[in-house]
Design goal:
The complex is a heterotrimer of chains A (373), B (323) and C (300).
Chain A: H1 2-16, E1 24-31, H2 38-57, E2 65-72, H3 77-89, E3 95-97, H4 102-114, E4 119-121, E5 136-138, H5 143-156, E6 162-168, H6 172-187, E7 191-198, H7 206-215, E8 219-221, H8 226-238, E9 245-247, H9 254-260, E10 268-271, H10 280-293, H11 299-317, H12 323-331, E11 336-338, E12 341-345, E13 351-352, E14 355-361, E15 364-371
Parallel strand pairs in A: 1-2, 1-3, 3-4, 4-5, 6-7, 6-8, 8-9, 9-10
Antiparallel strand pairs in A: 10-14, 11-12, 12-13, 14-15
Helix pairs in contact in A: 2-11, 3-4, 5-6, 8-9, 11-12
Chain B: H1 5-24, H2 27-52, H3 60-77, H4 86-112, H5 117-136, E1 147-148, H6 156-178, H7 181-191, H8 193-198, H9 203-229, E2 231-232, H10 239-252, H11 257-273, H12 275-281, H13 286-300, H14 311-322
Antiparallel strand pairs in B: 1-2
Chain C: H1 2-32, H2 39-57, H3 65-91, H4 99-120, E1 126-127, E2 136-140, E3 143-146, H5 147-169, H6 171-181, H7 183-188, H8 193-218, E4 221-222, H9 226-241, H10 246-266, H11 272-286
Classes of the chains: A alpha/beta (373), B mainly alpha (323), C mainly alpha (300).
Chain lengths: 373, 323, 300
């Protein structure tokens, strides 16, 4: 009897689900809140929450408040799939804000597509993600663009001919950027002298760096996340490697400088926006974010914020709350004044916007140049 | 024909259940049910090695990965039958996936099964990691990007039927094997290896046999997993996935087939059932509760739910007697 | 040539990191014959304890030897307490259970620490305070020997010798060996096995504590999952050297460190982890008890 009761208790929440409230619009979000990608998922989640809080404080949309249901995927594809299915069938969400990692989006987006629920990914940069169908959007630029940006920057601004690559082989984002960078860099007569890899979670990179040192590159492209890049920069300087390191938006965090200290100074990375911007959208966002969370927002937080804002704007414009209506409005998004630039969604449902190159200078992020698509 | 009576009955029951569920529950519960079948296959197959043969493998995710990748790659690249015969084609590829995993199991098992206890655990763990790292570096399999757009096996009733067929095959194959002379051999290896050897049983051979059969079904489970999620990448097949399989076996009771099934269902459902808690508290405490439950379970009921009894024994022993 | 020497130095310094953690695994295994999967998470908690204490005591910004020593002592105490609690609550009730159960419990404890760590400390990485300044001791050409590398190696060797002394020259060490050989007979001889096992956990966990401060000092980034990878490597190193053997742990760790380094240098960086496990498998197949382990023949 006891066991039967226990079983009932376990099954009940499964079946019952959530009751829908009248005066609310429910938006779903899934992300890695635990597991090895958690630090990125949490960032994006903070941005989303800030955006929705602002909107609710200003009265919501269509006279209704927005409530957010966030589910955790623990960094697992199958968890992302069941989380999205749950959001759609149990929570009856009108739209979904996706997770950071492209892998999870690839598992989750097709489910949103087949249920005709609009899906906006803040930071899944893999080109394949939006190929899931016409209900899947993203507000970030894709891997090929970011890789191209840094290759162009290296050739035109740094004027170098020999580069080395150190990629995170566990991470599709990093591998994507590295591949594109290599292809673009070679086009103009550049040479990739070494292409080595590490795995996210490693702490010792001296083996790879010693190897790179012996090849004498003029710059090293490290398209990883700040969690490892800080250590890589430190160890590179310890080994006497003085050439600049370059990276992508995965570098953008206050922690990068805290971990890397002086070693990280003078290195470059591509990003969605610059904190030095005088654009009121950016300064306002940074001010509010600091007030709420007591830290400078990183790239993922900014993208989460923009994803939520763009989605809500589409909901506001849509004649009703059906998936199709919201989707149609989303696809019409043009020149949206987001934190990460003026965002337009193209026919592939990808964001078209320019990237900036930033130089690390202590705790500041020094703006260097803008590179247009 | 008589031998096929029980499997056929089981299959019919599952089919009725599947069609019934199709009307009764929503897509979310259906998806969880499909994942539960994958976990059932995993735990039953690992039970053969860990439970019946008493060997300790920590590399099950590796074999699952081989099966998943084989079937995923084959069905996106080597389709040879028209759309209408998709189901038949999937069946063929799933068998292929099982065979590929079994071949890997043979290669891994032959040298490593001479080792005992913890050492075997470490070696299988090592092989699991090697398979994962190799997958990360194979460009034609997508590397860390994985393979997407894997065709599914149809809508829920079909997918569930498809999984049921494999569940029934797996259950009755292992059941039959365990009640044959091979099975006695497996058990003797678990109970006392030296005595078994003295009785003229080639213990390494027994272990390899169990290992290969177990890998076959792990490969099948992986293939089903690939078709149900439509996307795989190496991060689905980490060390934690192997651990999960071991946990299911121990939770259900070492050497209890029905126990494995019940445990697999619990392990699949529990994290999902705890989701409302996350919506309430805002932090994800699921894994904390899960791990705590695991520790308590090991302390309070170290033999697992069923011990080495089957469901029918438990029924007879506890429920009927009290009635 | 200079590159080779550099790789050699890198390998030894990586190996000495593994050694510090491998020693803890080997200690517990030697006495209890159980793989303490939670060891690497005790190490993680140690790193966070050091982090919070350094901030609380306000010593995070004055690097120096005394800071290092204070932190090591504090962390050792925290880790031993944690180790004791784990042993008392999770492992002791299972003293006579099958091996697999103990192992699952250890995995459970490990998962519990990892995930509650993510809830309590937050999942984002923290920056370990600068407890000592790193400087160059000796430089030949472009090859440099740095103080941290020497410190970690030195501590590793001292810890190994200390353990050897503890095990073979002291009374409690003899008791530990007795429990390891046969707990039943040991208890007949007036040794309290429970107390000895608790002591083993104190020693093992303190080693994790020392390791966490030294690793934190060298690689100043700590997060709740930091123990997973390094723990697995260190554990493999312990098995490689012959688990249960103190010298073997250090030898295995050095082999692991050097082989990982040389794989990257002369073969392929992508297969670094795979080849580390490959070496382990080859050695175990030819020498099933590890390099220095004793192969015990089962008696009927």
């Amino acid at each position: 009897m006891k066991k039967l009761l226990l079983a009932l208790i376990l099954v009940l929440p499964l079946v019952s689900g959530c009751t829908k409230k009248e005066n609310e619009i429910v938006i779903g979000e899934y992300d890695s809140l635990t597991g090895s990608d958690a630090t990125f998922g949490l960032s994006s989640n903070k941005g989303v929450r800030l955006a929705l809080d602002e909107i609710n404080a200003a009265g919501g949309v269509k006279g209704k408040k927005i409530s957010l249901v966030t589910l955790d995927d623990q960094g697992k594809n199958e968890e992302a799939a069941s989380a999205v299915t749950r959001l759609i069938t149990q929570n009856n969400v009108v739209a979904i804000i996706g997770g950071v990692a492209s892998g999870r989006s690839k598992a989750a987006a097709p489910i949103a597509q087949s249920n005709k629920v609009p899906f906006v990914s803040p930071a899944s940069t893999n080109p394949d993600v939006t190929k899931a169908g016409d209900y899947v959007f993203r507000v970030c630029f894709i891997d090929p663009f970011q890789g191209m940006v840094m290759a162009k920057f290296a050739k035109e601004n740094l004027k170098i001919k020999k580069a080395a690559i150190l990629r995170d082989v566990k991470n599709d984002y990093s591998v994507g950027l590295a591949d594109v960078f290599a292809a673009e860099f070679k086009k103009g007569g550049g040479e990739i002298v070494a292409d080595l890899s590490y795995q996210a979670g490693d702490i010792d990179f001296k083996a790879q760096l010693t190897q790179i040192r012996s090849k004498n590159p003029e710059a090293i492209y490290v398209p990883g996340y700040y969690t490892e890049v800080g250590l890589i920069a430190q160890q590179a300087r310890q080994l006497g490697v003085k050439v600049p390191l370059m990276g992508g938006d995965g570098w953008d965090s206050d922690k990068l400088y805290e971990i890397g200290k002086e070693a990280i100074n003078g290195n470059y990375y591509s990003n969605h926006y610059t904190t030095e911007s005088t654009d009121p959208a950016v300064t306002e966002f940074i001010k509010k974010f600091k007030a709420k969370y007591n830290e400078t927002p990183d790239a993922l937080a900014a993208l989460g914020y923009d994803a939520a804002k763009i989605l809500v704007a589409a909901i506001e414009r849509a004649p009703d709350l059906s998936g199709k209506a919201i989707r149609d409005e989303l696809s019409k998004t043009k020149d949206f004044p987001g934190v990460t630039g003026k965002i337009s969604l193209n026919e592939n449902r990808d964001a078209v916007k320019s990237a900036v190159v930033i130089q690390v200078d202590g705790n500041n992020r020094k703006f260097v140049t803008t590179i247009n698509p | 024909m008589k031998a096929l009576k029980n499997p056929a009955l089981a299959l019919i029951c599952l089919a009725v259940l599947g069609i019934g569920l199709d009307f009764g529950v929503n897509a979310y519960i259906k998806l969880i049910l499909l994942f539960a079948t994958v976990n059932c296959l995993l735990s039953m197959s690992l039970n053969l090695v860990n439970g019946y043969t008493g060997q300790f493998s920590l590399g099950h995710a590796g074999f699952m990965a081989i099966g998943a990748y084989f079937s995923a790659y084959a069905s996106t690249k080597w389709g040879f039958l028209p759309e209408s015969l998709q189901l038949v084609q999937s069946f063929v590829f799933v068998i292929g996936a099982g065979l590929a995993a079994a071949a890997a199991g043979f290669l891994v098992g032959l040298p490593s099964l001479r080792l005992k206890g913890d050492y075997l655990a470490i070696v299988t763990l090592g092989f699991g990691e090697i398979i994962r790292v190799a997958l990360l570096n194979m460009d034609f399999l997508g590397g860390p990007r994985g393979l997407s757009g894997i065709p599914s096996v149809g809508s829920f009733p079909f997918a569930f039927m498809f999984a049921s067929v494999w569940l029934v095959i797996c259950f009755f194959t292992i059941w039959r094997v365990m009640h044959s002379s091979h099975g006695r051999g497996f058990l003797s290896v678990r109970e006392d290896e030296i005595a078994a050897e003295a009785m003229g049983i080639n213990t390494t051979r027994m272990k390899v046999k169990a290992f290969v059969l177990s890998s076959f079904f792990a490969g099948v489970a992986g293939a089903l997993f690939a078709h149900f999620t439509n996307f795989i990448n190496p991060s689905s097949f980490t060390f934690l996935q192997s651990v999960n399989a071991v946990i299911m076996v121990v939770l259900g009771g070492m050497g209890s087939m029905t126990g494995s099934i019940v445990a697999a269902i619990i392990i699949t459902v529990l994290p999902e059932a705890l989701r409302p808690l996350q919506e309430l508290t805002g932090v994800d405490l699921r894994m904390v509760i899960y791990s705590l439950a695991l520790i308590l379970m090991m302390i309070l009921r170290p033999k697992g739910l069923f011990g080495d009894m089957e469901f029918s024994d438990v029924w007879r022993k506890y429920v009927r007697r009290s009635a | 040539m200079q590159d080779f020497v550099q790789h050699l130095i890198n390998g030894v310094s990586l190996g000495s990191i593994y050694a510090l953690i491998a020693l803890g695994y080997t200690m517990v295994y030697g006495i209890l014959k159980m793989i303490n999967f939670a060891h690497s998470d005790v190490y993680m908690v140690g790193a966070f304890a050091a982090y919070y204490f350094a901030r609380w005591l306000g010593i995070e910004n004055n690097p120096g030897f005394s800071t290092l020593l204070t932190l090591i002592v504090i962390t050792m105490i925290c880790c031993s307490l944690l180790g004791l609690v784990i042993e008392r609550l999770a492992y002791r009730p299972l003293r006579n259970s099958p091996k697999l159960n103990v192992l699952i419990t250890a995995i459970g404890v490990s998962l519990f620490l990892q995930y509650s760590g993510q809830v309590v400390f937050g999942a984002d990485p923290k920056v370990f305070p600068e407890v000592m300044k790193d400087f160059v001791i000796l430089s030949i050409g472009i090859v440099e020997i740095r103080s941290f590398d020497v410190t970690v190696l030195g501590v590793g060797i001292v810890a190994m010798l200390g353990l050897q002394f503890l095990l073979f020259k002291t009374k409690i060490g003899r008791a530990m060996r007795a429990v390891s050989a046969n707990p039943m007979v040991a208890s007949l001889m007036g040794v309290n096995p429970d107390r000895i096992i608790a002591f083993t956990f104190i020693v093992g966990s303190s080693l994790a504590g020392i390791g966490s401060v030294l690793v934190g000092m060298k690689y100043p980034k700590i997060d709740p999952l930091m123990g997973m990878m390094i723990g697995m490597k260190a554990f493999v190193a312990a098995v490689l050297g012959g688990i249960g053997n103190v010298g073997g742990a250090v030898l295995g760790a050095m082999i692991m460190g050097l082989s990982e380094e040389m794989v990257v240098a002369y073969l392929s960086s992508t297969y670094r982890d795979a080849l580390a496990f490959g070496i382990l498998i080859v050695i175990l197949i030819f020498k099933p008890a590890g390099l220095l382990g004793k192969y015990s023949v089962e008696k009927v």
